[in-house]
TrEMBL record:
Domain (Peptidoglycan binding-like): residue spans on this chain: 245-286, 334-375
Protein source organism: Aeromicrobium ginsengisoli
Presence of keyword Signal: yes
Protein name: Peptidoglycan-binding protein
UniProt keyword Signal present: yes
Superkingdom to which the source organism belongs: Bacteria
Keyword vocabulary terms for this entry: Signal
First and last residue of the signal peptide: 1-25
Gene3D superfamilies: PGBD-like superfamily/PGBD (1.10.101.10)
């Protein structure tokens, strides 16, 4: 009797273990239909397909919903009629996350709900089929659902182990996908947009609406440091309150959207990379009394001109440059202290062109030996 019981029990136990075991490596997080219902494209799709995006992690803090993500969310909800809208933008306080750049979306479809899981299966199956052809058309970088992740830049690996995400599908986008500059929306095959560049080490990337195909310009070390701590969208506390007072916005103690916009506007007005964060270049401009180190400390305007003539006459400096030479230039031009940070942008460009106009030089905004000599001549 015992022997017969064991012979029956063993197959049952083995069978139960097989049913409870996790999906094999590379398998999807849920069963996907063989002919999934996909999204209708708003344009005629070209024969070619967009290149697969590499992994482009968050480098900037831009909590604004990007247009390509907004359009996809609306189309997914309309097409499948399931789940909640979820969030696109998040605070910049949760670690590296494309949500902090407005290029990730959480579609609230719970794996335990049959109709929601079916909708998720249709979208996921359609997006990832054929090595992610449709994901490439949408500019999707990766998808996470039910403890598994699929990435267009590792499509051959299939679904890899992840964690969480049982109540929503997380979708992260490339910059082209986030901007809506892909073939699914435009009818033209897009190119890879590598996104913002970090201009000063240790700061966020400078926000821009211009796609980037090439390498970033070099990153400069911080030329000014302060006693103030860096803060970004979502942070709270006395440091944020201090900045709000200096910026003239409501002193809520929370780095909110009004503060984010005020920081961005201040940076644009003072030739600071447009990070929209309270970083060291911004604090040095906003709160001069907090500066603890300065690469041109002790140099008068005349001394900065003399140093520039001796050191930089053999090179050129133009808009977009970041570094010590630009800080000496800003000092030599006699620009206001709030505008001196070592980043050559619109305010510095205007000052250079005024110098060129007064000296009878070509007003191209490029600083060469002639401009340094003109600065020396102006001081007598």
């Amino acid at each position: 009797m015992w022997r017969r019981f064991m012979l029956v029990l063993v197959p049952l136990v083995v069978g139960a273990a097989l049913l409870a075991s996790p999906a094999a490596a590379g398998d999807p997080p849920i069963t996907l239909p063989s002919s999934p219902k996909g999204l209708p494209a708003p344009v005629t799709l070209p024969a070619g397909v967009d290149p697969a995006s590499p992994y482009l992690p968050q480098v900037s803090c831009s909590p604004v919903d990007m247009p390509g993500v907004v359009k996809l969310r609306a189309l997914v909800l309309k097409t499948y009629g399931e789940g909640g809208a979820g969030a696109i933008s998040h605070d910049c306080t949760e670690g590296v996350s494309e949500h902090s750049e407005g290029r990730a979306w959480d579609w609230m479809v719970d794996v335990s709900d049959t109709s929601e899981r079916t909708a998720a299966a249709n979208f996921i199956g359609w997006a990832t089929a054929n090595s992610g052809r449709n994901a490439r058309r949408l500019g999707i970088m990766y998808i996470i659902y039910n403890k598994k992740i699929w990435a267009v830049y590792r499509a051959a690996d299939g679904w890899r182990t992840s964690s969480g995400h049982t109540d929503h599908v997380h979708i992260s986008f490339s910059w082209n996908g986030a901007r809506g500059n892909t073939s699914f929306w435009t009818g033209e095959v897009g190119t890879i947009d590598l996104g913002p560049c970090v201009r000063f080490a240790g700061t966020y990337g400078a926000r821009t609406s211009t796609p980037r195909a090439g390498a970033c310009p070099r990153t400069a070390s911080l030329l000014k440091k302060t006693s103030r701590a860096d803060r970004a969208y979502g942070h709270t506390g006395a440091t944020v309150t201090k900045a709000q007072g200096l910026l003239g916005v409501a002193r809520t103690g929370k780095f909110d959207m009004a503060t984010w916009k005020a920081v961005n506007a201040y940076q644009r007005a003072h030739d600071i990379p447009y990070t929209a964060a309270l970083d060291q270049p911004t604090w040095a401009s906003l709160s001069p009394s907090s500066v603890t180190s300065n690469a041109v400390a002790g140099y008068t305007q005349r001394e900065a001109v003399e140093y520039g003539v001796a050191t930089y006459s053999g090179s050129t400096i133009a808009r977009g440059y970041v570094g010590r030479a630009a800080l000496f230039l800003q000092t030599a031009l006699g620009m206001p202290a709030a505008d001196r940070n070592g980043y050559f942008s619109t305010v510095t460009l205007a000052a250079v062109k005024r110098l060129q106009a007064s000296a009878g030089l070509t007003q191209d905004g490029i600083v060469r030996a002639e401009e340094w000599r003109a600065m020396a001549d102006a001081l007598g």
